[in-house]
Fold:
Amino acid sequence: MRQNGIHHVTAIAGPARRNVDFYTRILGLRLIKKTVNFDDPETYHLYYGDEAGQPGTVLTFFPWAQATPGRLGVGEAQETVFRVPEGAIGYWTHRFVEKGVSHQALAKRFGETVLAFKDSDGMRLALVATPGGGSEPAWSHGDIPLDAAIRGFHSVSLLLEDAAPTGAILSDVLGFVEIAREGGLIRYKAGETAIGGIVDLRAAGGFLPGRQGAGSVHHIAFRAPDDAAQAAMVCKLAENHRIRTTEQKDRNYFRSVYFREPGHVLFEIATDIPGFAADEPLATLGQDLKLPQFLEPRRKDIEAVLPALA
Ligand code: ZN
Structure:
């Protein structure tokens, strides 16, 4: 069956080491790839996910020690939401209190229990209790019990001037359909995709535009199974929406095109193949600094400027 949905979310962070600590030690995600920003090789590109980094579980960061905080506004992702098993919300609330993580009181959204919180850069995140999630595989490492561990993305929400043009791209090109509305949110879902299958749109006309910085989402990548499916999506964008993407870029673990959707959020379409085991074994994902072939000749210089992570 064809799987659509979120492939990965990429955000901007402050100091790299603090970012690694938060996502591996507090949230218990696996650091699945330690590489550099291919377009700016003196900056890390850190990937966190489940054990294998399957599409729909991967949150990535460009950490910059000097990054100034972003300011949320229209044309941006508002919140990035993870799934946890239904009985685990109490565990997480307790954990956030204990670890001093800034969080809000439990809320209900579309009938689901939501625990909103922020990372060490003020990035807006949330956990949603998901029925049945406890039987799915997860990365259980350190002190988080397997039956409470994060099970990939639930959704992202976008803050937009006007929801309709972005909704048209989600439904015509990216495989989503509108399934519900509640309190200013319009929910889109990608077929039967359980992990990373939801995008919520919030129209907030009149808000200031966002300013990207630490804690801001840089872009959201959507899934294409392979190159042919991606090419078909690129065609639809051009023919039905007059949107041109970049040329395809080889990101080693997936192949990508990028475009600004009509609400100004940067979207990417990334292939599910070849995946994160393309250049290192599954068992040791994320341990060594991996560079694409074209940067290997510069490895020494790159390693010299990257900050230590532990
Ligand atoms: Zn990306």
